[in-house]
Amino acid sequence: MSSQRAIQVGQKLVKPVLSTTPGEARRRVLNLYKAWYRQVPYIVKDYDIPKSEEQCRQKLRELFLANKDVTDIRVIDLLVIKGQMELKETVEIWKQKGHIMAYFKPTEEPKPKDFLSKFFASNE
After folding, report:
1. Buried b (16+ CB within 10 A) or exposed e, 5-30
2. 17 band by pLDDT with thresholds 50, 70 and 90
3. Please, are residues 90 and 100 in contact by the beta-carbon 8 Å criterion?
4. pLDDT tens per residue across span 94-117
5. Do the beta carbons of residue 29 and residue 76 sit within 8 Å?
6. Are 43 and 100 in contact (CB under 8 A)?
7. DSSP codes joined into one string, the chain
8. What does pTM read for this prediction?
9. pLDDT at 109
């Protein structure tokens, strides 16, 4: 029992997913970011997307900054694991061009409020 590690989350003592300290979780996030950053030129070339490397790197930064306020180490670890899976799928070309371009879809489209706008958007 002494070989199992535990981390304090709030008032609970829980089993960690990967990291035991916030510094270790931060290191994992930075390593994932660097891995994605290094793969951007190959992704642009392999998938033949109509975006420049700089636009892709800006989107990468935006996606990582979307989770900058997450403080729970276990949640950070799960996000890192999901990011690693996405990276592997992308590098191994298990995705299609449309999957890559979906990252560039506008995320904050205002929902229509009046009847005609809803009708034209087919949301009614």
Report:
1. eebeeeeeeeebbebeeeeebeebbe
2. confident
3. yes
4. 999 999 999 988 766 677 788 888
5. yes
6. yes
7. -TTS--EEETTEEE--SS-SSHHHHHHHHHHHHHHHHHHHHHHHHHHT-SS-HHHHHHHHHHHHHTTTT---HHHHHHHHHHHHHHHHHHHTT-S-HHHHHGGGS-S-PPPP-SHHHHHHHT--
8. 0.78
9. 67
Beta-bridged to residue 13, according to DSSP, are 8
**Is residue 43 classed exposed, middle or buried when 0-12, 13-18 and 19+ CB atoms within 10 A define those classes?**
buried
- Give the tokens for residue 106: 């506008």
| Stretch 59-76: mean pLDDT | 95
Q: What is the Cα–Cα distance from 22 to 68, expressed in whole angstroms?
A: 13
Give the tokens for residue 107: 């995320």
Which tokens in the block code for residue 53?
């490397």
Could you tell me if 4 and 65 are in contact, meaning their C-beta atoms sit under 8 angstroms apart?
A: no
The tokens for 90 are: 């992308």
